[in-house]
Amino acid sequence: MATEDVNEALGAAEVPIESTTEKQPHKLERKWCFWFDNQSKPKQGAAWGASLRKASTFDTVEDFWGLHETIFIPSKLTPNADIHLFKAGVEPKWEDPECAHGGKWTFVVTNNRKQALDKAWLETLMALIGEQFDEADEICGVVASVRLKQDKLSLWTRTKSNEAVLMGIGKKWKALLDVTDKITFTNHDDSRRSRFTV
Ligand code: MGP
User: Where does the secretion signal sit in this chain (predicted)?
Assistant: First the structure.
């Protein structure tokens, strides 16, 4: 699918899940949602979140692969778009009660950008839906942010203060990504505060 088609498809109604097999599907431990936010043409005066929308919910391995392979690949997006994979019932917003007291680990993609971004994204998705984190209950979801200067992935956590949980998640994620680059943690309160404009 071409980039324009992807963006158009994601901007339309809820993305239907095409059944990929007639065999008994493999149920995931929990339900997940893909979200999408294309801020490349923001409407003037629109509040943050105006273009954020839930794209698809799934709870089987087969549906995950069907969705991921057809559309949810970061390198196919235009700059200033975000794709999210969050637990069903959790919105990818600071305001969501599950996220409100948390923060995010961020991995900035520096080398070989698009390929590295897609690889890191897929590794992270598989680790999440495969429940590979010991602290899985403390994770809200992950965001891939496609930007002109540098793409990044952010793994959102429920807590901003439980150091043992945060370090467990951060170390595991870094090992899964198999990178030597530093990843950094920011709590959502700091993200809010550091962005005042007049
Ligand atoms: P961002 O997209 O998380 O940061 O937030 P990034 O990607 O470093 O910045 P960018 O300029 O490259 O996009 C960017 C801005 O979006 C924030 O400063 C807020 O104004 C707004 N924003 C982002 N998030 C995740 C939220 C949110 O959850 N709630 C609200 N109200 N605003 C948000």
Answer: none
